[in-house]
Each structure stands twice: as structure tokens, then as C-alpha cells.
Amino acid sequence: MTQKTLPPFGSVFHEKMPFSQYDGQKWSSWQWQPSHQLMMHPAMHVLHYGSACFEGIKAFRQANGRIVIFRLDKHVQRLRQSASLLNLPVPEEALVREMIMAAVAAARDEIPEAPAALYIRPTLFGTDANVGKAGVGSESAYFYVLVSPVGDYFQVGSPMKLYVERHHARCAPHMGRVKSGGNYASALMWQTMAKREHGANQVLFCPNDDVQETGASNFFMIDGQTLITKALSEAFLHGVTRDSVLQMAPRLGLKVEERDFTVSEMLDVIRRGGEAALTGTAAVIAPVTSFVVDGQEIQVQKQELALKLRQALTAIQYGDAPDVEAWLTELA
Ligand SMILES: *Cc1c(COP(=O)(O)O)cnc(C)c1O
User: Fold this and answer.
1) Tens digits of residue pLDDT in 20-54
2) pLDDT exceeds cutoff 70 at 3
3) N vs C: which end of the chain shows fewer Cβ within 10 Å?
4) Is the beta carbon of 241 within 6 A of some atom in ligand 1?
5) What are the phi and psi torsion angles at 18 (to 5°)?
6) Percentage with pLDDT > 90 across the chain
7) How far is the CA of 9 from the centre of ligand 1 (A)?
8) Peptide linkage before 89 cis (omega within 30 of 0)
9) Distance from the CA of 280 to the center of ligand 1, in angstroms?
10) pLDDT at position 9, please?
11) Residue 193 CA to ligand 1 centre (angstroms)
């Protein structure tokens, strides 16, 4: 499949998915289920109290025919952390890995070539059928792995206009590192407003002037030869792409600073000719083209270093550069 013929991001799935359920005692051995329907009790915990988390991972088809998954361990670890923070049953590492590998292997022939990929969406949620459990974690759960062939989420060269939200947070400050649907729901009001009123592509959340992240991606800026991004805290999602960029940046001659910074410092950097970009599995590294702040649009003059980082990262993923950090897991 070529990039052009791919359907919109995440809308088409391999026909079956590995599925396991937790009954309060143990996880069932996983089985294949059709990926287009799911039986649910209308009182399920997830539908009422939002006990759901997920992961977003990519598998790549390299030119030599190898199929590789990017930083699988890190994603498995984060899914288990999200589950634990939501008081959900935590699936064993081996089960999660096995189900992900099985899902990718089943879709092997559907994995597109560069610059496209297979997007992997492990999904976990609470299934107790009891609306009385508002203040209690679900004791039972479903876990399954959807896979979807995808093109680039943000095409290089397309505009990335960020609306700078100076007051509201994306989600509750203690929930930021949980990859959970509820956090997306809580950001939707500002995203919708920013799109409708400013034609913005994404919202950069900067509560109390603290530059954090966008609705679904982490954020960094580059001042001269220094890459600056917020240090890890409970308030935002600890991206695997962010971590990868921080490890790669020194190889491209960039110094790295993990620290807090304000909107006014960021705007100074941009006005001096600095760069900014979003990072995420879907977005890869998407350079920012302009910011909307207090009703004014500020253009970003350069995208050069962000694109260089993007190039360096995708070269590892597609096997065009050595995988020195051992980030890739090859499908047998
Ligand atoms: C998934 C996600 C990211 C990016 O994380 P990656 O591991 O790089 O894909 C950033 N912010 C939010 C809110 C996310 O949900």
C-alpha cells in the first residue's frame, strides 16, 4: 500500500485482534476475536467512571523486509503504569508483549512501506458491571490489541499552528502521565475552541504560564544549539518519542536542557529565530510553523533542526541508520 491509498489515520484495522480478560483472579489465555465488534454490559465501569488506558506504538517495514517494533519495552512498561495508576488489573509484561507480537505478525502483509507504518493500539479498561462502583477501581478488565496501517499523521511541509492556552491545563495535574481517554476528553473543549476560533491545528497547554504539552504530543523548542523541554513531572505524558529525541540530540550537536520555561521565554526564543516541535508516536517530530498567543499570530522562521531530528529518528526506524541504542524489536 502506498501513502496515497491509505485511509484516514486509525480508521481501518486488521480483521482480528488478540483478546484477554481479567475475571478478578487471573488473566485468561489470549484468543483471537473479530476487531469490529465487542460485547459490553451497559453498566461497565469504563462507560461510567472512565477506567480506560491505552498505548500507541509503531511497527515498521524496513527496505530489507524486516518488520520491527519501536521501543516495545518502554511502551509495555508505560501501559502497565497507566493501568496501575487507574487501579485497573495490570496485565503481565509477557502477556502484553506476546499479544502485541501476535497482532503485528497477523497483520504482517498489511504493513506499508516508508513513510507509512503499522500503528499498534493496546487497549485496557474496567468491566465491572456495577454503577455503584464510583469510588472503587474495577476488579475485572478487558485487554486487546488493535493494529492499523497508517500514513504520516502530520505530513512534512503542512502547517502546524499552535494555539497557546495560558490558563487551562490539559487534564488534572496528577493525571498527566496516565495515557487515558479521560485526559483527552478534558482537553477537548479547548481544542475545539482553538480550531473554530483560530484555525489552530493543536493546543499548547501552558497552565499558569508553564509550557507543558499539546493535546496528544510532547513539546520542545530549540534555542541556538540547545534543545529545551519540560522536565518530567506528574503533569504531562512521558513520551517515548520525547525520550528518544533527548538521547539523539547530542549526536546532532545539540545540547539538552530539561527544565521549566514560560510562554514569554518561549516567544523570545521564537522571535530570535528559534524552532519548536511536537513529538509523539503518531506525529513523529512535527515542526511548529506558528503560534497564536493572545489573539496574535507569531510565525516560526525555521524548521531545519526539527526536521533533521525527524530524519535521524525515522532513519533508525526504517533501518537506514544503525540502531545503536537497541530500540528495535524484530518480528521473528
Ligand atoms: C501518547 C502521548 C504523547 C506522546 O507519547 P509517545 O510515547 O511519544 O507516543 C504525548 N502526550 C500525550 C498526551 C500523549 O497521549
Assistant:
1) 999 999 999 999 999 999 999 999 999 999 999 99
2) no
3) C
4) yes
5) -70, 135
6) 94
7) 16
8) no
9) 5
10) 87
11) 22
Q: What is the pLDDT of residue 6?
A: 78
Residue nearest ligand 1's atom 14 by CA: 216
User: Does the structure show a pLDDT above 80 at 11?
Assistant: yes
179, 182, 184, 188 alpha-carbon torsion, rounded to 10°: -170
CB 321, CB 66: distance < 8 Å: no
**Which residues have C-beta within 8 Å of that of residue 16, sequence separation ≥ 6?**
32, 33, 34, 35, 106
Q: Where are the beta strands (DSSP E) in 76-140?
A: 117-126
- Residue 72 amino acid letter: L
Alpha-carbon distance of 123 to 143, in angstroms, equals 6
Position 157 scores a pLDDT of: 77
Supply 197's cell numbers: 476560533
Residue 309's identity, in one-letter code, is L
For the question of whether the overall pTM of this predicted structure is more than 0.90, the answer is yes
Cα–Cα distance measured from residue 127 to residue 146, given in angstroms and rounded to the nearest whole number: 18
Contacts of 14 (CB under 8 A, 6+ apart): 35, 103, 106, 107, 110, 146, 147, 148
11 by DSSP, 3-state: which?
A: coil
